Amino acid sequence: MTDSTPTDPVFTGSVFTVRDLTVTYDGGPPAVSGYHVDLAPGTLTVILGRNGAGKTSTLRGITGFLAHESGSSKGRISIRGQVVKRPNPLRLSKLGVGLVADQHKVFVNMCVQDQLRLVASRKQDLEEMYDFFPRLRERRTVRAGLLSGGERQMLATALVLLRKPSVLLVDELSLGLAPGMVRELMGHLRRLADERGLTILAADQAVHASLHVADQVQVMDSGSLVASGPLDSLDIDAVLDTYLGRHER
Ligand SMILES: Nc1ncnc2c1ncn2[C@@H]1O[C@H](COP(=O)(O)OP(=O)(O)OP(=O)(O)O)[C@@H](O)[C@H]1O
User: Fold this and answer.
1) Whose CA is nearest to atom 6 of ligand 1?
2) 10 phi and psi, to 5 degrees?
3) Is the CB of 73 under 6 A from ligand 1?
C-alpha cells in the first residue's frame, strides 16, 4: 500500500475506519461533524437520515470529492489499519474503495455492453457482472438513457464493481425508485457482502429496505450521528421515531 502511511494507532481490526470527519461548504458551519465508523469485513452498514442530514456530504467527505466543489473535509481515514494520507478519489480508488455516487453518471448515449466493456479487463469479468445483474444482460444492447432508473443504478454499480473494490460506498441507491426495485437493489448489496465479501457503507432514505439488509446502522441528524451500532444493539424504532418521524418511514 504505497499511498498510505502510517499505521493507525487505534486500529480496530476493521477494513475501513473513519474518525472525526468534518465537512464544510464555503467556510460555513459544518454540514457534518464528528462522524466516525468502523466497517468489519464483508458487512453492510447503512446511514439513515432525513433530507439534509448530511449523508451525501459524509460519503463525499470520505472520498475527497468535495475538493472539486466549494466543500472541504477533515478527518482520519484508515484502510486495514493504514492511515490514508490526503484522501482523494483517485488515491482511495487505488486502495480499493469504490463510490457509487449517482445513477446519472452513466453515458446515456452508449449501450450497456459497450460501457461495461470499457471497464471490464476480461470477458469473464463481464460475464460475472451479467450473472450478478441478469437485467443488464437482458438490456445489454440498450442505450443507458433508455434504461429504467433501477437498471441505470445497476449499471452504475456494475461499472464500479468491475474495478474490483474491496470497500464500496453507495449514495442514495433508492433515489426516485419504486419500492420493489429498492428492495431488489438492497438485496444485491446484501449479496455483494455475503457472496463477494465486499465491505459496504450505504447512505439511503429507504428505511425499511435498508434495515432489512443491514448489519450495522447509523442515524444522522443535522450533520451529527445520533445513533450508531449493530442493528440488534439499537432501539432502532425509538431512534427513527425521534429523528425521522413515523410518516417518513
Ligand atoms: N455543494 C454544496 N454547497 C453548499 N451546501 C451544501 C452542498 N451540498 C450539501 N450542502 C448542505 O449540506 C447539508 C447536508 O446535505 P447532504 O446533501 O449531505 O444531506 P443528505 O442527508 O444527503 O440529504 P439528501 O437525503 O436530501 O440527499 C445540507 O444543509 C445541504 O444544504
Assistant:
1) 25
2) -115, 45
3) no
Q: DSSP secondary structure string, 120-172?
A: -SSHHHHHHHHHH-HHHHHTTTSBGGGS-HHHHHHHHHHHHHTT--SEEEEE-
Closest C-alpha residue for ligand 1 atom 29: 52
The CATH number assigned to the domain with range 4-96+166-248 reads 3.40.50.300
Q: Whose CA is nearest to atom 31 of ligand 1?
A: 52
Contact between 77 and 235 (Cβ < 8 Å)? no
Q: Which pLDDT tens digits describe the chain residue by residue (249 residues)?
A: 444 455 666 556 789 999 999 999 988 899 999 999 999 999 999 999 988 999 999 999 998 877 566 888 899 999 998 999 888 888 999 999 999 886 567 888 999 999 999 999 899 999 999 999 999 999 999 999 999 988 999 999 999 999 999 999 999 888 888 889 899 999 999 999 999 999 999 999 899 899 999 999 999 999 999 999 998 888 888 888 887 775 455
Q: What is the ipTM of this complex?
A: 0.96
What is the H or E stretch that residue 20 is in? strand 16-25
Runs of H (alpha helix) within the chain: 55-63, 89-94, 112-119, 123-132, 134-138, 149-161, 179-196, 207-213, 236-243
| Domain ranges within the chain, ordered by starting residue | 4-96+166-248, 102-164
